Amino acid sequence: KAGVTQTPRYLIKTRGQQVTLSCSPISGHRSVSWYQQTPGQGLQFLFEYFSETQRNKGNFPGRFSGRQFSNSRSEMNVSTLELGDSALYLCASSPTAVGGEAFFGQGTRLTVV
Amino acid sequence: GENVEQHPSTLSVQEGDSAVIKCTYSDSASNYFPWYKQELGKGPQLIIDIRSNVGEKKDQRIAVTLNKTAKHFSLHITETQPEDSAVYFCAAPPGGAGSYQLTFGKGTKLSVIP
């Protein structure tokens, strides 16, 4: 069974630009959550989607948004990029509707210059 | 919201020794406690988890214990090997979140010295 796939793996953007990251969950998994990982703040929850609906959102500005498609694939978007948005963005997928195992992808390393 | 504290931040052990990492959480309604291992350049890998109705769970050289009264849980790795070297994270969901919103500890960098 294929794992969680995130594309692209690496990305370099300029301040002020916007970026879209993609996540394909494990086949059959309907929940997708996103996390930002930085050396200073660690792993922080961004948002979580189930059946195309955002169920929870972390404490991030409105520049961070996401969506989920009918095939459970998810995208997250960051607009008006800031230097502080440089991070590893991780996607995790889960098989059921409520609490349990979450499986992470390799992440997308975003560098804002 | 949930607050998870993890100790120590770094841990060095000799190959073959045991390693213990401890976490405390704040939300007494939390009911699921996973541990993740992250190697350089990779995403976190779920290595073991425990639910609130169980006090201990073992999987070969890895075990997790949970004390709900004290609101802490621990990861135990026995007979450590060099390939155990990585950063380990504990996590807990806010109680009643009903979703996959995990609050993570800051991580423990484990170094196993051959």
The major sheet of chain A is characterized as: 7 strands, mixed
The count of DSSP E runs of length 2 or more, i.e. the number of strands of chain B, is 11
Q: Which shape of chain B, going by the Cα principal axes?
A: globular
State the separation between the terminal residues of chain B, measured CA to CA.
Answer: 41 Å
Description:
The complex is a heterodimer of chains A (113) and B (114). Chain A contains no helices and 11 strands. Chain A has 113 residues and is an all-beta fold. In chain A, a hairpin with a 2-residue loop joins strand 5 (42-50) and strand 6. Chain A is globular and about 40 Å long. Chain B has strands at 4-7, 10-14, 19-25, 32-38, 45-51, 56-59, 62-67, 72-77, 86-92, 103-104, 108-113. The model of chain B has no long low-confidence stretch (mean pLDDT 93). With 114 residues, chain B is mainly beta. Chains A and B meet through strand 4, strand 5, strand 9 and strand 10 of A and strand 4, strand 5 and strand 10 of B.
List the helices and strands and how they pair.
The complex is a heterodimer of chains A (about 110) and B (about 110).
Chain A: E1 5-7, E2 10-13, E3 19-24, E4 31-38, E5 42-50, E6 53-57, E7 64-68, E8 74-78, E9 87-94, E10 103-104, E11 108-112
Parallel strand pairs in A: 2-11
Antiparallel strand pairs in A: 1-3, 3-8, 4-5, 4-9, 5-6, 7-8, 9-10, 9-11
Chain B: E1 4-7, E2 10-14, E3 19-25, E4 32-38, E5 45-51, E6 56-59, E7 62-67, E8 72-77, E9 86-92, E10 103-104, E11 108-113
Parallel strand pairs in B: 2-11
Antiparallel strand pairs in B: 1-3, 3-8, 4-5, 4-9, 6-7, 7-8, 9-10, 9-11
Structural key phrases:
heterodimer, A: 113 residues, mainly beta, four-stranded antiparallel β-sheet, B: 114 residues, six-stranded mixed β-sheet, five-stranded antiparallel β-sheet, 0% helix
